Amino acid sequence: MKVVTGVIGNDIHVVANRLIDLSLKARGYEVFNLGVNTYLEEFFDAVIETDADILLISSLNGEAEGWSREVKALKAEYKGLDNLIMMIGGNLTVGTGKAEDIIPKYKNYGFDLVCHQVDLNTGLDMLAEFVKEKSA
Amino acid sequence: MNSHNDKLLIDVGSTYVKVCVESNAPERCHLEQHFRNFNQSILDDLMHKCGHTISAFAKDDVYICSSANGGLSTLIIGLTHTFSLKYATNIAFNSGINIIDTILYQDIASATVPSDLIDVVIIAGGINSKGNAFADDLYHYLQNINYSNIVYVGNEQDAKVAKAQLPELVVLPNIIDNRLHIVEEELKAYLTNLYQQDIMGKEDIKDLYQISSNQIFSTPYIVNQTLPLIDASYSVVNPFILLDIGGATTDIHYSKDLVDENMVTNNEFDRLVFKKLGVYKSRESLIFAAQGNEFVYELLMHLNVTENIFHEQSDKATRILMQLAIFLVLCKMSHYRQTYINLKLSAVNSIVLTGGVTKVLKQEEAEDIISFFYTKILTSQHRPVTIMDTDYAIWTLGSRAQDANHRAK
Ligand code: B12
Q1: Which of A74, A52, A63, A73 minimizes the C-alpha distance to A5?
Q2: Cα separation of B181 and B341, whole Å?
Q3: Is the peptide bond before B239 cis (omega within 30 degrees of 0)?
């Protein structure tokens, strides 16, 4: 399966991005890594050009929420993104927040899987599970 | 070859023609500039005005470049703004082509059909493992378009169907590789070649081979070749932008450091053309663009003139239009997402002006406009250094570099 990944907005925290790239490849995904400093439109554009099945966004510096509010509207402008699996993880709020508040908010923004401060491997297991259920 | 290694450099523009003698003996160097006479062929016009100079040179020592063909028009159809459209646009600009239009493929059903003849249509989109990116709506759309050339640089899988639908289609390698990076070479070579053919196709220019045995290049190509040499030869501090404002078009060349993007390419410099932004041939459209800009009235006030200046034919009016052209170009490059690319203008250290503008404006007049722009639009105290390439040193440098390449081969 093809995955487009990267770090959203003006966020330059690159370490997790490198790990995500490696872990996804180790799990057999074909990875298109847009790196840090990536804008929402670039993510969707990359999905279109590659025919990716999954979009995995990471956000570490707390910017995610601002961007995520625009996800639904922007995605609706594209034709052919209806089956895209959308996932986000990292530090999804500024300062501290509770996962039970954060998760529903991001689901409402249009994400299928939301991993606030979740360890990467746990997150990727969730993804595998989700993919399995979806194709069943 | 003559004893002083003298060379004659000629640049044929849409409005002016420049003739420059380059020599190891400084006293022999000189530059002439003439308005073109459109009632005569370029060669006749040249011979009439500087036949004496020209006949003193052997054909081997004459180097000509031209922008008089006005460039090629392109329609690019691509899947996304970030990748296929941007990459193709970028390659086209760097090959010396003036873009007419881009179409996002998903909107093709509602896209307007251009009425003018298009020199080349470019189709791009998808990495090679993406198939079925294009369907019948593409071919329907193309049926209604009038074009001379069409080239496909999209994913491999769709190439076969496209070729079957469009027998005249030229298929080149995908401009997007499997890591979503840009692949420039083949499309660039193809477009540069088309541009050359277009120059040659213009009867007038072909005549110029009677006085030169060297290949005639496009002027923007020559300027682009010079950019890496500029900061070594002049007091230009990187990063810089170079504005070539002439009679028909305005060309901007800029260092890549000024662009916030993750496009991977080998070129240090890029180029952007604003067609129809010149003070002679494109005067009307320049005025139209000015009237659409909300700050222009303030600018006119600042320059102590009124809108009536647009209807005047005088040196003063030309000067004001040149100042407007500088202002409009800077505006166009600064507003988010309004154009193809936005430059980090607050990081620019030098603005180099070349072309007709240097013959019309004084240094202070150019600086005045640039200050106005930085204060009003960017609300910044930043002032890049303005450098006027009054004696066409950039073009001379480029032509000389071309000559050196040529000799090396
Ligand atoms: C190193 C670092 C920096 C370096 C970054 C260097 C670089 N180029 O990468 C520098 C100094 C430049 C920096 C700058 C800033 N930083 Co900083 N930085 C850190 C730090 C100390 C470590 C980050 C790191 O690399 N960790 C190692 C990696 C492997 O872990 P990770 O990033 O957490 O990723 C893991 C998980 O989050 C997860 N994950 C990540 N994405 C995804 C996605 C999915 C789908 C899944 C399932 C999992 C997942 O997987 C990874 C492996 O388990 C963290 C604090 C911390 N200890 O986490 C702060 C931290 C991330 N930074 C923070 C801040 C605020 C900033 C600045 C704004 C500071 C400032 N005021 O200037 C700037 C922002 C710059 C910018 N434009 O983005 C905050 C963010 C707070 C928030 N979200 O509320 C943190 C948390 C520090 C803090 N506690 O305040 N930072």
Answers
A1: A52
A2: 18
A3: yes
Residue B218 confidence (pLDDT): 75
Closest residue on chain A to B124 (Cα) = A49
From the list B188, B200, B335, the residue with the least C-alpha distance to B265 is B188
B180: left (phi over 0), alpha (psi -120 to 50) or beta: left
Residues A92, A94, A100, A105, Cα dihedral to 10°: -60
- What's the CA-to-centroid distance between A103 and ligand 1, angstroms? 19
Nearest-neighbour CA in chain B from A91: distance (Å): 24
- Tens-place pLDDT, residues B289-312: 778 788 888 989 999 998 888 888
Rounded CA-CA distance A112/A80 in Å is 17
The tokens describing B331, both together, are 């505006």
Query: Which residue of A38, A42, A49 is in closest CB contact with B130?
Result: A49
- In terms of Cβ atoms closer than 10 Å to its own Cβ (0-12, 13-18, 19+), residue B231 is middle
* Distance between Cα A61 and ligand 1 center (Å): 6
Residue nearest to atom 11 of ligand 1 (CA): A13
Sign, Cα dihedral of B360, B361, B362, B363: negative
Closest Cα partner for B378 from B409, B336, B408? B336
Q: pLDDT at position B277, please? A: 56
Sign of CA dihedral A42, B112, B162, B116: negative
Cβ atoms of B347 and B257 closer than 8 Å: yes
Q: Does B84 contact A49 at a Cβ distance shorter than 8 Å?
A: yes
Q: Which residues on B lie below 8 Å from A25 (Cβ)?
A: none
Q: Is this complex scored with an ipTM above 0.90?
A: yes
- B79: nearest CA partner in chain A: A49
Q: How far is the CA of A108 from the centre of ligand 1 (A)?
A: 25
Amino acid residing at B300: L
Strands (E), B44-129: 62-66, 73-78, 98-104, 118-123
- Does the beta-carbon distance from A49 to B106 stay under 8 Å? no
